[in-house]
Design the sequence.
């Protein structure tokens, strides 16, 4: 009887027992970890600045505090709207525009900060970015009181509006924060930087509450930090952002991705002509006004004439306000000059050109910083399309969200 009991004990030697225990503990650990400690997605969506959509997504180990953070995000976006809106009569920008004094006008530190940044960006992009073009925006029908023009503005009207604008006619001081006009009629329009700044303010809210893995998108301007977690494998991946095809999109048509961008701990903004334009005398004009010429940029959109033209420009920067402003300026520059400036300042810039070639209708031109500093674009457009439709499901790049023009 004793010999039989001894044989049973020897059937499972000590090292086997240890292995079994280790396997059991490991399975228990991974099971508990995957159930309780894997980051899960939490999001909030809505509209801001009128009808501009926003989406904020975070990955966190717990939902605790997310509802409070979501409410704070909405309040912060509302606050920014009341700071910058040209549509709201009681906004800080509107009050400044309607003040015809040429003395120092007390404003918030935030507004001064944006004016200072706008001046810095303007110097980089050959003065193609200017927040004082509000009179020209109105003249071309894109202002608060939108209207459709039947005829092009006359050179005299353009010259008159230009006499009331110009960043050289706007001064600022930081302490105490104040702005000063050198012409009474000068007005500012922050639409070229407002969405980007809103993204940065949402990022500040998230980081105040301890979120380190997030994606923020306001009207196409995007900022990310950290990683997202795959729901099935629980692996962490960088945020993959898609640049939209710069062709007009009809209602209910799905967004089409042109180039996937691996965006991590950076912001990206895109300016383009395919979604906000007007038709005057049979010709399309984009909402982006050139402060040097005073004219809205002409665009063919379908590009049937066979000549290359800029469809969109995407800029990557450490903060979204800077990316937003730079994207507007680079869009108004010719591609060659834009790339020259981008290389000089080591700015990641991606031009998407409409070629007029049916076989390859779009072409990318990238600054050196896109290629050298960070491998942002994983593949060319055609390689990406091939991989999406030819590779396995796991191999296909899946952009998290699209930048819209």
Sequence:
């Amino acid at each position: 009887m004793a010999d039989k009991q001894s044989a049973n004990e020897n059937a499972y030697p000590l090292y086997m027992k240890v292995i079994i225990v280790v396997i059991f503990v490991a399975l228990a650990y991974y099971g508990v970890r995957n159930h309780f400690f894997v980051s899960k997605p939490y999001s909030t969506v809505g509209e801001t600045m009128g009808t501009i959509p926003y989406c904020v997504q975070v990955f966190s180990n717990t939902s605790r505090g997310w509802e409070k953070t979501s409410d704070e995000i909405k309040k912060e976006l509302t606050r920014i709207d009341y700071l910058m809106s040209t549509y709201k009569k009681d906004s800080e920008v509107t009050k400044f525009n309607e003040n015809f004094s040429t003395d120092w006008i007390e404003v918030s530190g935030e507004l001064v900060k944006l004016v200072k940044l706008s001046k810095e960006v303007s110097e980089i992009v050959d003065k193609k970015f200017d927040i004082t073009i509000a009179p020209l925006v109105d003249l071309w029908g894109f202002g608060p009181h939108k209207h459709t023009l039947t005829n092009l503005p006359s050179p005299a009207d353009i010259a008159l509006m230009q006499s009331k604008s110009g960043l050289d006619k706007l001064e600022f001081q930081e302490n105490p924060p104040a702005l000063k006009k050198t012409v009474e009629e000068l007005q500012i329009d922050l639409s070229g930087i407002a969405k980007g700044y809103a993204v940065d303010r949402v990022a500040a809210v998230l980081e105040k509450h301890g979120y380190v893995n997030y994606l923020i998108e306001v009207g196409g301007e995007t900022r990310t930090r950290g990683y997202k977690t795959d729901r099935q494998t629980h692996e962490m991946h960088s945020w993959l952002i898609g640049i939209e095809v710069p062709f007009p999109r009809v209602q209910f048509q799905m967004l089409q991705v042109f180039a996937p961008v691996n965006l991590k701990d950076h912001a990206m903004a895109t300016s383009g002509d395919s979604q906000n334009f007007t038709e005057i005398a049979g010709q399309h004009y984009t909402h982006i006004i050139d402060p040097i010429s005073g004219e809205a940029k002409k665009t063919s959109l379908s590009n049937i004439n066979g000549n290359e033209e800029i469809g969109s420009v995407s800029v990557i920067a450490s903060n979204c306000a800077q990316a937003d402003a730079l994207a507007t300026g680079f869009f108004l520059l010719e591609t060659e000059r834009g790339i020259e400036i981008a290389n000089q300042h080591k700015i990641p810039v991606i031009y998407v050109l409409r070629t007029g070639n049916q076989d390859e209708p779009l072409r990318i031109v990238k600054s050196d910083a896109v290629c050298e500093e960070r491998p942002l674009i994983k593949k060319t457009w055609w390689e990406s399309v091939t991989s999406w439709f030819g590779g396995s499901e796991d191999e296909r790049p899946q952009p998290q969200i699209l930048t819209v023009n």
User: Anything to note?
Assistant: Confidence is low (pLDDT under 50) at residues 32-36, 250-254, 373-405. The CA atoms of residues 242 and 402 lie 5 Å apart.
